[in-house]
Design goal:
Number of helices: 27
Largest sheet: 4 strands, antiparallel
Strand order of the largest sheet: 1-2-4-3
Structural class: mainly alpha
Keywords: Cell cycle, Cell division, Centromere, Chromosome, Coiled coil, Cytoplasm, Kinetochore, Mitosis
Subcellular location: Chromosome, Centromere, Kinetochore; Cytoplasm
Radius of gyration: 57 Å
Main location: nucleus
Protein name: Centromere/kinetochore protein zw10 homolog
Distance between the termini: 120 Å
Family: Belongs to the ZW10 family.
Number of strands: 8
Helix content: 55-70%
């Protein structure tokens, strides 16, 4: 580099100019020295040269003239030198720019050479199925193209062509890796047209696992398997490939095994394919899968995958961990929703046995951690299993509320008899903790009072505070049994569960207060006997709630001041009374309507007034009376037209007999009455036809209702029929 610079500077004349400047500088110093010597000589020899002053002045003038010439020469030389220096700098800048261009071209050629080398190595490695080297060489080729793109002329067609080639080769590599991956994990899935709604639809699912070739040591992954996974990782495709595999695995194998108890997984070994996973159907009566069964099936699948495919570390992370991160959340939610929810006990006595399920869940997660599918100490799955008391209470409360609502919306007319001796069937409760001392003190007090004489010898009646004889709905009796059973469950449960169950029982009675009057509203207004039963139901519940809380109070972990059920008693009494009074008002209105034709019971000595009053009071037609009335009406209807017999020929008289309704205005009314006397309620309603039928033509609404009330007993069906007699 130094010789090259020397040649350039020499060619520009810079060295010669530097030598000339040095000579001029020396000459200038010599002139200055000469001037000083001449001046000193003049000063010293001034006296000696006085006679020849004119010669000295001439000499001095010559010296000064020489000095001026020297200065002029110096100035010219300096100007020349500066011009030459400027030209040299300009030339140097041009050479430097050219050098930079040459350097860029050299770098460009270097990147092209690296790209060419990388592509050659890439193709060679791809043919040899050395996918890791192929992936790395492809990365080198891409790096070379990226370096070319950073050049200022990156829009060159060559750069665009190379970039396109890199993209094509990447897709080619991904395709080869996909083919190899499919050989390693080959799925056979149900047809896309198949609806995945039953066990049979999943029986076509088959997974062939190949470790990449036969090996003596099965514990070490085959080189091809490792090469494919590492190459996918280098290309940034490993996570995507595992995610897609995990989605198919969960949808077509893991989820069906969790959801369907009859679906089993079978693992077989084949020399050509390694392990083969297939789904088989096994008959079972279980509606929901057992947790241990689900865990075993899932572990069978994941262990097989781990032993044949995923027991490989890429970048210090196991492939099984990648799969676990992708499917664990969805899989654990499915296990909870389809399995653990249904395994929650329905009885508090079964809670102790649930510890086995918790142990199975812990072992399941431990196995997953050993294989690398799961990381962390505690997951939502294990937390759910351990929180069984809370889930039991929630499930129990939900079941109780559903059962209670079903009873409340059932028929009320099925009744049972309640006597003063009736008592609720309360199971034997365990002795409350710390109660021994209290019982001893209570015994001492009772003994003390027994020794004292009572001032009043009269005793209360055995019937005091007993409910009178009555009939209540069978569903209400079952509702009270449900409440007592739920409270008994609370006694043997954890404190949190006991409190939740207690308030669920309170919610049952709140629900009764709101649901029954609303759901049975119409029937309670139309059917007097149902209103009476509802009154008895409310009074029965209120009576039992007076003491129900005190029977369970020592056994429930509730705070002091809780009113238990006593606060609900007034509300139930008001509810029963309100229903009873409402029905009384309905009956009163009906009686007033019936008596409105009695002419105020005045002037009963008059036969017409007496007949009207008697009819208003009785208004009742027995079955026998109704049958006889129908017979009489039918006789009139059949034989009455025979009166119209003006002609000797009987056949010709039919024309006049058919014209009876024209001359007898109430003839059609009589025929409708005869029909009603022989019809049931539904036939009457159909003939009324919402005020548009033949009955509606002959009778008013009040007349038709009065006739129905007279012919039929007061039942739900009669009330429903009366409600439909409107115009």
């Amino acid at each position: 580099m130094s010789s090259f610079v020397t040649e350039v500077l020499a060619s520009s004349g810079k060295l010669e100019k530097d030598d000339l400047a040095c000579k001029i500088s020396k000459l200038s110093r010599k002139v200055e020295e000469t001037k000083e010597e001449v001046t000193d000589m003049i000063n010293k020899k001034y006296i000696e040269f006085i006679p020849s002053m004119e010669g000295a002045e001439e000499l001095l003038a010559q010296v000064l003239s020489v000095s001026k010439d020297i200065d002029l020469l110096k100035s010219c030389i300096e100007n020349e030198v500066q011009q030459n220096l400027h030209d040299a700098v300009t030339e140097y800048a041009k050479l430097k720019q050219q050098l930079e261009k040459n350097t860029a071209v050299i770098n460009l050629l270097k990147h092209l050479q690296e790209f060419d080398t990388a592509v050659e190595e890439y193709h060679r490695a791809l043919q040899e199925k050395n996918y890791v080297i192929a992936a790395k060489q492809h990365g080198n080729a891409r790096a070379s193209v990226d370096a070319l793109k950073a050049w200022k002329d990156n829009e060159l067609p060559l750069v665009r062509a190379l970039s396109s080639e890199v993209t094509i080769q990447r897709e080619n590599l991904i395709h080869h890796l996909g083919v190899e991956w499919q050989k390693l994990a080959d799925w056979k899935l149900p047809s896309p047209k198949t609806e995945l709604t039953s066990v049979k639809s999943f029986l076509e699912t088959v997974l062939h696992l190949n470790r990449g070739g036969s090996k003596a040591d099965e514990s070490v992954p085959h080189a091809l398997l490792l090469s494919v996974l590492q190459a996918l990782s280098i290309q940034g495709e490993l996570h995507k490939k595992i995610k897609l595999f995990g989605q198919v695995l969960f949808k077509f194998m893991l989820k069906p095994l969790i959801v369907y108890p009859s679906l089993m997984v079978e693992v077989s070994s084949q020399p050509e394919h390694g392990a083969v996973l297939t789904l088989q159907c096994k008959e079972t009566k279980a509606e929901h899968p057992d947790p241990s069964q689900v865990y075993n099936k899932v572990l069978t699948v994941l262990k097989t995958l781990h032993g044949n495919l995923f027991n490989v570390s890429i970048d210090e992370k196991k492939v099984s961990e990648i799969l676990g991160d992708l499917i664990w959340e969805e899989m654990s939610e499915c296990i909870i929703r389809e399995c653990l929810v249904h395994s929650i006990p329905t009885n508090s006595n079964q809670l102790a046995e649930y510890s086995e399920v918790i142990k199975q869940t812990e072992d399941f997660e431990s196995s997953l951690k050993e294989m690398g599918y799961l990381a962390g100490d505690s997951t939502d799955l294990l937390k759910y299993a351990r929180n069984v008391n809370c889930h039991f209470a929630s499930k129990k409360c939900q079941d109780v509320i559903v059962a209670a609502r079903k009873l409340m919306t059932s028929e009320m007319h099925n009744t049972v008899k309640i006597t003063p001796e009736y008592k609720l069937s309360i199971p034997k409760l365990p002795s409350p903790s710390g109660g021994e001392k209290e019982r001893k003190e209570s015994g001492k007090k009772s003994a003390h009072y027994d020794q004292q004489s009572l001032e009043n010898e009269k005793q209360l009646s055995p019937s005091t505070l007993c409910l009178p004889v009555c009939r209540i709905s069978e569903s209400v009796q079952q509702l009270m049994d449900l409440a007592i059973h739920t409270l008994s469950e609370a006694v043997g449960s954890s404190p949190q569960c006991a409190v939740q169950l207690f308030y669920t029982v309170r919610n049952i009675f709140h629900l009764f207060y709101d649901v029954v009057p609303t759901y049975h509203k119409d029937n309670l207004l139309k059917l007097p006997h149902l209103a009476a039963i509802q009154h008895n139901n409310c009074m029965f519940i209120a009576h039992q709630l007076l003491t129900l809380g005190f029977q369970f109070k020592p056994h429930l972990p509730l705070k002091d001041g809780v009113s238990y059920f006593v606060d609900l008693v007034p509300g139930f009494r008001r509810l029963g009374a309100r229903c009873f009074v409402a029905q009384m008002n309905v009956q009163k209105a009906e009686m007033l309507e019936r008596l409105s034709t009695a002419r105020n019971f005045s002037n009963l000595d008059d036969e017409d007034n007496y007949s009207a009053a008697s009819k208003a009071i009785r208004q009742d037609i027995s079955n026998v009376d109704g049958e006889r009335l129908r017979t009489l009406c039918q006789t009139i209807i059949e034989e009455g037209p025979l009166v119209f017999n003006p002609l000797p020929d009987e056949n010709k008289n039919k024309k006049y007999q058919e014209e009876v309704p024209v001359y007898v205005k109430k003839w059609m009314t009589l025929k409708e009455v005869s029909m009603v006397l022989n019809a049931n309620l539904q036939e009457i309603v159909d003939r009324w036809a919402e005020g548009k039928g033949p009955l509606a033509v002959e009778f008013s609404c009040n007349e038709m209702k009065s006739l129905i009330r007279a012919l039929f007993k007061n039942t739900e069906r009669r009330a429903a029929a009366l409600a439909k007699i409107v115009k």
